[in-house]
Amino acid sequence: MMFIPCSPTGPDAQMRVCRIVVLLSASAVLLPLTSAQGLATDHRNFSAWKNENKNEQVRKQRSSSLESGRGFFDSLFSFRRSRLLDQDEIRSRLSAEPKKKPAFYTYKPEPKVPLASPDLVGNVGETPLAANLFGLMTSSDANGLRTLKDDVKAIRAGYAARKFEPIWVTKTGFKPSTISLLSALSAADREGLDARRYLPATLGSFDETSLGDLNDDALARLELELTISALAYAREASAGRLIPNRIGRNFDVKPTAVNPATALNMLIESNRPGRVLNRLHPSLPAYLAMKRELAKLRTSLNAADQQSDIPDGKTLRLALVDARVPLIRIRLKKLGYPVKQLAVADTVPADFDLSSVPVQVQSENQRERVSLQTYDQHVADAVKKFQRSNGLRPDGLLGRRTLAALNKKPPSTEVRITQLKIGMERLRWLPRSLGKRHIIVNKPAYVARVIDNRKTTHKMRVVVGKPRFATPEFYDQMEHVVFNPYWNVPRSIAGNEMLPKLWNDPSYLDRTGYQVFNRRGRQVASSSVDWWSYTGRTMPYDIRQPPGRRNALGAVKFMFPNKHAIYMHDTPAKNLFDRLTRAYSHGCVRVQTPRKFAQIVLGWNKARVDAAISSGENRKVSLSQNIPVYLTYFTAWPDESGAMKYYEDVYGRDRAMVRALQTLNRKAAQS
Predict the structure, then answer these.
(1) CB atoms within 10 A of CB 235
(2) Helices (H), 357-488
(3) Which of 42, 53, 552, 625 minimizes the number of CB atoms within 10 Å of its CB?
(4) Is residue 508 part of a domain?
């Protein structure tokens, strides 16, 4: 302890006191004292402050004492007023920060406008139907014919160019090309769309081909209804029904719809317009797999989604004989974990007597007879795989938790169909060609894949954003890799997570190895900053973590510059990759195999990547060719064998899309 005498200044004689600076090794605290009695009093207050006393009088005394002692020593020491902040005050400060936009919006569909316009001009053909069409399209009331503005413009221009002669109908019925169009519209359900939306109101069904009962006005109306439906199908097949950025703030995808004028010309010129429409759907392997799965599920839709529970009982372990083992074998096979040497039918009749199961399986190695009721090593191995995939301890024992997981009711077929339809909608948002080489991250699956010529050449687990820091959906181009990166702490993390710690511990950043820079770019000590004076919005400092083993980005990061400041990177928290659910980051994507990933995207060998990391040098390396990166969100996605896998809706985005589609259908019915 050191005492430094000093003299007060000012005209007031009563202000003449002796200033004492107490230097403590744990933290520098300036304690202005007025007398020996004040020293004792202040010591008691210091103890109260150290013990987090919430007494308001002590807090006020400290504050006034600080003000009286400010001056020369403020440039040397930072008084830790923040110790006087309790949790309620911290929460109050944080609640004053600006809030993010809500994750999801109330969906607002694109408005429809009338097709007819009295101002429409043009030459009219000589046939009665041409005159009726022109009359309908120039009437003040076209009997509710409405569609999107761009479609209206294309339809008016298209019919004016052909002198309003019909494209689809004649006085006696449909043209041959119209049958092809109706065939495609009626099959929309196979593509995850709703065929009812494309059925012209004038027709009772897609099978209705006789138009003998329709007068010229009705034929003209049917003609325009067919064109409206064809263009709506073309738009939705090419870009989806929903506008992504109207669903929520993390849907940053801009689909490219076919130009309606181009689509109409293609339909007019083709003898098989149905094929023109079908070619607008994605041709990606994932889309085709979803389409096949959708057809299969719809075939079995009427089958009962029933599953009998495996009865409770004692924990099963190796060599135990139990009448439930055959049911366990069957359940494991149904869930995708087949037991080797299974020699029992795939289904067990309800009246099947398990005690009568014969001793019929021979071990290939030991040639000993084993009962199907025995919980053998093959069953235990399959149980371990099931446990590992379902976030259970993979011990091979079948206890209560594992049994409950085996008995968990699978989602209904209707739920799976919805997942597939949502997935097909999302695929329409992506470019038709993803690139010969591209990287696709599927957040619900917590998996990233490198795709070369439509084949997966590398697959790795990833950690994505927590639900409150959900990783957005977007795509961009990977441009470079950074070895031994600095981590520039985002303002949101600095303000919401680090600043509350700094209010209570100004030296926190110094002690944990972070660097602090002021607005001039000059590095300052964390302990020298009066953090209590700032909020996350007003804090005039940048925080950076230098390269090293503790760096949050690990040894390498992969950059595809974007407005979200999202990228892929290594992590020191390797244990998170072993978890079933891996939503733990602040939005960026952590990769399980960063060194191998760097080899692939840079075209380097292992030794070269290892040398770049072990050098410790912060180094940026540009890719020889940019690689498209797609941060996607599919709760249904095929594996490498083509089998469909389903995942949890971790961010609730599928539910948001379902709500948006319901809003769209409701608005369409009202119009």
Answers:
(1) 23
(2) 377-389, 400-406, 413-429
(3) 625
(4) yes
Hunting for tokens 């067990």 — which residue is that? 348
- Catalytic residue at 588? yes
Verdict on whether the full-model pTM lies above 0.70: yes
- Whether the CB-CB separation of 541 and 523 falls below 8 Å is answered with no
What mean pLDDT value characterizes the chain?
83
Residues 340 and 235 reside in one and the same domain: no
pLDDT, tens digit (0-9, with 9 covering 90-100), for 390-438? 878 999 999 999 999 999 887 888 999 999 999 999 999 999 999 999 9
In whole angstroms, give the CA distance from residue 456 to residue 458: 6
Q: Evaluate whether residue 106 is within a structural domain.
A: no
pLDDT class of 141 with cuts at 50, 70, 90: low
Task: Evaluate if residue 505 carries a pLDDT over 90.
Answer: yes
Q: How many domains does the chain have?
A: 5
Cβ atoms < 10 Å from Cβ of 126: 8
Task: Examine the domain organization and report whether 261 and 141 are in the same domain.
Answer: yes
Task: Write out the residue range of the structural domain in which residue 270 sits.
Answer: 112-241+257-297
User: 14-24 burial by CB neighbour count: b if 16+ within 10 A, else e?
Assistant: eeebbbbbbee
Residue-wise pLDDT for 532-559, tens only, equals: 999 888 999 999 999 999 999 999 999 9
Sole residue written with tokens 């900053």: 529
Say whether both 167 and 228 belong to one domain.
yes
Tokens coding 41: 């009093």
Q: Cβ distance 131 to 214 under 8 Å?
A: no
Note whether residue 248 is domain-resident: no
616 shares a domain with 561: yes
